[in-house]
Amino acid sequence: MGKSKELSVDLKKRIIDLNKSGKSLGAISKQLQVPRATVQTIIRKYKVHGTVVSLPRSGRKRKLSHAAERRLVRMVKSQPRITKKQVCKDLEADGTQVSVSTVKRVLHRHGLRGCRARKKPLLQKRHLKTRLKFAADHMDKDKTFWRKVLWSDETKIELFGHNTQQYVWRRKGEAFNPRNTMPTVKHGGGSIMLWGCFAASGTGSLQKVNGIMKKEDYLQILQENLKPSARRLGLGRSWVLQQDNDPKHTSKVVKEWLNQARIKVLEWPSQSPDLNPIENMWTVLKKRVHARKPSHLAELHQFCQEEWSNIRPEACQELVDGYQKRLVAVKMAKGHVTKY
């Protein structure tokens, strides 16, 4: 016997109205052509719940108990890289057989979703220690100190954005339609290496590096660009250079020149790009340049120079003035990587 069709809300309301008007169950049943037992059930539910709308039903019994769900969540939190299939196997080994979709629903219900792991520098114990020390030593520095820092770094930018992603709207079976594909070129169609610097007052020099940069090349870049950039940005005399601990940066010849030029260098913790706000500047630069779709390397370099100079000083100052948040984040993460 098939499942009977549920009465509409309007019909249920008519049953309640007739009951309130004083009509008997039999009269209501005869007038509306509804079984007497159904009329009685609707009236009884209305008196208990005060509504004729169908209430949520319990549904099928869950495959996983609350205790099993908590165990599943603990398993995934302790092993973030475990796959759904492996979770199913582990549960099956303990006598609980569930599907991959069940595991997925349970994890979603607890706010856990599969995401791509972010690529971050490998941090060893010594790195964590130096990062925490840097945060502690500079936590009391105010905005005035950070506005006197000249931030510097190198980056590689590819002609066609080898690592960019593009999403499209398409139907099943249309994945390889030319309109839905993203053309690629080996090695990103070529790339250029750039050295740049900036401060809270704006962007400084942006220099193209020819070939593989050696310590002599780096020294020449510093000699030609550091002091002119500091003067142009109005840093005065007591400014500080920030650079990472790349072997070229810490080479003897570079250290000697910095000492002779009386340029102070900010002591820097290794493996800490998240503490250098110029990384955010590189992201802005690459997005703007790729939006202009350069067609060759010379045009790529030209667009980089133009977009670097177009970054507003206000954006630079906002980035630097919020620097203490990075230090707090490092402390909260106990030296591990942060969202920056």
UniProtKB/TrEMBL annotation:
GO MF, one annotated term: DNA binding
Domain Transposase Tc1-like: 70-140
InterPro entries to which the protein is assigned, alphabetical: Homeodomain-like_sf, HTH_SB, RNaseH_sf, Tc1-like_DDE_dom, Transpos_IS630-like, Transposase_5, Transposase_Tc1-like, WH-like_DNA-bd_sf
Superkingdom assignment: Eukaryota
Domain Tc1-like transposase DDE: from-to ranges: 149-300
GO biological process: DNA integration; DNA transposition
Positions of the Sleeping Beauty transposase HTH domain: 1-52
A UniProt-annotated Pfam family: HTH_SB
PANTHER family, A to Z: SI:DKEY-77F5.3 (PTHR23022:SF135), TRANSPOSABLE ELEMENT-RELATED (PTHR23022)
NCBIfam families registered for this protein in UniProt: transpos_IS630 (NF033545)
Name this polypeptide is given: Paired domain-containing protein
Lineage of producing organism: Eukaryota, Metazoa, Chordata, Craniata, Vertebrata
